[in-house]
Amino acid sequence: MVSQEELLSQLGNPATPRTLDRLYQFAYLLPTIIEQLAHDALTEEWGRNHFVLKKYLAVHVAWSIEQNMFSWNEQQLVVATGSLQTRYGTPLYLVFEPNRVPGKQPWALVYAGARVSAPQLPIPPEIHACPEISRGAEVVMMHDHILGDNADRVAFLNDTPPVAQICAVSGAIQWSINRGLIVPYWYYGRMQCLVPLYLKSRENITVAPDLVAPLEVSPSNILVRTVLPPHAPYANARVAVHRHDQLPAWMLDCWHSEAERMSDEECDGY
After folding, report:
1. Res 145 pLDDT > 60
2. Handedness of CA 44, 45, 47, 49 (dihedral sign)
């Protein structure tokens, strides 16, 4: 059996925005197995090429190994597929075997499903907690990037003076934080937060916001590097909840309308 330390070494550095690349360097994924897993799991929209499912697996396989939530069946490595279950509530598992192709990934995914034989079946890893935001923390914005490089995302503010633009976005962030509208999401190897930005109307917070803002939370402030279209960070938000229906209704609606259009690169870039 391979040690936990060696498995972690095979996964590589977790501090990367290209989360799926870690799984690709760890194991070969047979497309038909991923397709079968998407069919067996409780129905949800996984996007083109089941990209969101693969990203979900990439994060939860890594968490399983980091938290020592895996088991062995002789030479087979067995992990839970996060919290994924069949339509009847049966947990689903992944089974990896050593890759016999020289010079390739150390492992190959040979099975995904509910029928797994192992002396002890693993349990899902714990989902990391979203950082706690101190009430009244200062919002620090990278305004040149948000209101300059990506001004098209806030085109409705183009005729507003720069300071007023900054105040509008910052105020929308605080408004959402104060109302508990925070959405956890996984980015660059750690759990972070998203908040919806209602800049035009706040009459109905169940409908799609104008934008969303990823937040980097520290003890002294909240750093905002960019703002995004509401559907863009879905893949990273999905890994942070047990079931997709635990995400806000507006995020699910936005994702469903854009899922088939978004490329793998776009899904992985937010």
Report:
1. no
2. positive
